[in-house]
Amino acid sequence: MIGRLRHMLIKEFIQVFRDKRARFFLFGPPIIQMLIFGYAATLEIKHVPTAIVDYDNSQVSRDLISRFTASRYFDVRHRLADSRQIAAVIERGDAVLAIQINAGFARRVRKGQVAHVQVIVDSSNSNTALVGLGYVNEVTGAFAGDYQLETLQRTSPLAIARMPKIVLDRRPWYNTDMSSQWFFVPGVIGNLLLVIVMTLTAFAVVREREIGTLEQIMVTPIRRAEFILGKTIPFFLIGLFDALLISSVGTLWFKVPLRGSLAVLTLGTVLFLFCVLGIGLFISTVSLTQQQAMVTGFFFIMPSIIFSGFGSPISSMPTFLQYLTYINPMRYYQTVLRGIYLKGVGLEALWPHLAAMALIGGVMLTISILRFHKSLE
Amino acid sequence: MTGVPYTIEVHELTKSFSGVVAVDHLSFSISKGEIFGLVGPDGAGKTTVMRMLAGVMAPDSGGAVVAGCDVVASPESAKQRLSYMPQRFGLYEDLTVDENIGFYAKIFGVKAAARDERAARLLAAAGMSEFRSRLAGKLSGGMKQKLGLVCALIHTPEVLLLDEPTNGVDPVSRRDFWCILYSLLNEGVTILVTTAYLDEAERCHRIALMHEGRMLFCDTPARLKANLPGAVLSIVTSQPREISERLAGQSGVSSVMIVGDGLHLMVGDAATLIPQLKEIIAAAGLSYESIEQVAPTVEDLFVEAVTGTMRGMEQ
Ligand SMILES: Nc1ncnc2c1ncn2[C@@H]1O[C@H](COP(=O)(O)OP(=O)(O)O)[C@@H](O)[C@H]1O
Ligand SMILES: [Mg+2]
């Protein structure tokens, strides 16, 4: 048993390291994805392209505009003379936001009347639109507050002391700079392990079916368990190696702190790999060709990532989808990853997630092994 | 049982795929040291028989005993003692010749010393000694097939099941291939081979003609030919299609088949028919090089058997 398994493993490793595509899979995606998520993907919205129409042309309106140009959240690209030009600029995508200050703005502000600032926003990207509007609100609010303060200072300085004031003391826990790199880098480990280990496992078995070696293997005395272990152990080890590679880049390059226990992180990774190997084997039992395996794999990968809380939080999904995420092993792994990396929590907080992965992994592997017959048909 | 130790015994073996009967109550026996050919057109059910004997496919009913093991009841039991080379032998194309051989040797638990000695001998017989470190994917079709055979033989099986082993293989490799097979017979190996090449079937001790899952007949090539009713005429011509249209259905001609250089006719009495046929062809303004009686080939047997069965069904 051990002898045959060992030879099966030797063969698999020779094949993996000889196959250019598989070799690329080991190092390429981890590095590329790390760079993408480390640098490009960000939740913060900055430099919103903005157009401004100023019909008032007063000192006050120019003051307000200078606040927009000074803010790093806005990139004032266009100063338009006519509000009819706004539509064209937004349609071309040259601006997401247009701010229009009407004539009489300064007069109304000085009289303490309601002064309108019109904001037109391209809400085809609803998130940017929403965040952009929030920034506009903040800038104009601050402007109004400061103007009021200045006026009071000139007329009745004593009243200032009696003015009620609420200051928001932001104290973000865990990720004090609210850096999205910190948020994404641990999550990427989960995505990469899923994509790499699942595809490699499914492909390795399906390729044998496709080139006919599976039929050949079936007539040898090799046992089902030996074949399956021989096919999964290499990818399990590769998964662990990739996890180490990615987390090293995260820690050494992006300086994401690893606050919790490495042992618990390893345990979580091992359990997650069981789930992924189970899914990979399952795909191989329902696919006759590598192409089918690819399509089936895609069917698993997309929802696994979307419904894991990797990008958008599970709590903002519709309720029935939230229930669906409970069968998604990635959901638990993401919690474990961020819990250990950013919060530094340990077994006492994470054990339910680890247990869930153990359960799902056990079920997936059992189903796949039972489905895998040492016969044709 | 009459006491003859058959190495392969097939009894009423049946298998259908979603209503289509692929193998239909098939029975035959093969003795130790015999090379037995299963001949038939595509879809006859040859591969299905092989798979059931190799224990990778369960029959619907019937029994099969291979090397003393009941492969229907316990498919794993015979695996150490037989070797099955599927129609498309699965080589690992990204492994070298030696690595492929080594892998199969290890899976079968062949000791290193025995493996090296046997691999060297088999590779020499296959004329592949100098390609041992070449990737299997870089070999020619014939070489791949021979490497498949070497892998299949590395654990010294008692029974060898070969499914169309020389399909698409060049003549030189085919000759090497058959040389190896004959040398195995001397070692007492029992071989079941399927083939679509009828000239190859004549090299078997016995052949069985299979058609639509059933066996039409089974005997030695010589006896089958001797029992063939009537004679075979060969017409060498460059107008086979035209001549065959004239002669089909002619009284005394039971079948017409187009072959490489002309036509083969199955006839009742050659001596009286030859002059008549010459007249018919000349009257139609067609030309030929020669008409003469020839020894029947397995192909003639097959055509006669199949058309015979169809005539039987029409009545
Ligand atoms: N796995 C299968 N599923 C469905 N039908 C099959 C399968 N294998 C063979 N058949 C059918 O069984 C018949 C016999 O096929 P096969 O044994 O491959 O014949 P041969 O090897 O003589 O060409 C064919 O009609 C074929 O379509
Ligand atoms: Mg076949």
Provide a short characterization of the protein structure:
The complex is a heterodimer of chains A (about 375) and B (about 325). Chain A has about 375 residues and is an alpha/beta fold. Chain A has 15 helices and 4 strands.
Arithmetic mean pLDDT of chain A: 85
Low-confidence stretches of chain B: none
Given helix and strand content, the structural type of chain A is alpha/beta
Largest interface by Cβ-Cβ < 8 Å: A-B, 26 and 29 residues
Number of strands of chain B: 14
Helix share bin of chain A: 55-70%
List keywords for this structure.
heterodimer, A: 377 residues, alpha/beta, abc type-2 transporter like fold, 2 domains, 4-stranded mixed sheet, 15 helices, 68% helix, 6% strand, B: 315 residues, Rossmann fold, Alpha-Beta Plaits, 6-stranded mixed sheet, 4-stranded antiparallel sheet, 10 helices, globular, binds adenosine-5'-diphosphate, binds magnesium ion
Summarize the topology:
The complex is a heterodimer of chains A (about 375) and B (about 325).
Chain A: H1 2-18, H2 20-40, E1 48-54, H3 59-70, E2 74-80, H4 86-92, E3 97-101, H5 105-111, E4 117-121, H6 126-155, H7 157-162, H8 180-211, H9 213-218, H10 224-252, H11 262-286, H12 290-306, H13 319-324, H14 329-343, H15 347-371
Parallel strand pairs in A: 1-2, 1-3
Antiparallel strand pairs in A: 3-4
Helix pairs in contact in A: 1-10, 2-8, 2-10, 8-10, 8-11, 8-12, 8-14, 10-11, 11-12, 11-14, 11-15, 14-15
Chain B: E1 6-17, E2 20-31, E3 35-39, H1 46-54, E4 61-66, E5 69-70, E6 82-85, H2 97-107, H3 112-125, H4 141-153, E7 159-163, H5 171-186, E8 190-195, H6 198-201, E9 206-211, E10 214-219, H7 221-226, E11 231-236, H8 240-247, E12 253-259, E13 262-267, H9 270-283, E14 290-294, H10 298-314
Parallel strand pairs in B: 3-8, 3-9, 6-7, 7-8
Antiparallel strand pairs in B: 1-2, 1-4, 4-5, 9-10, 11-13, 11-14, 12-13
Helix pairs in contact in B: 2-4, 4-5
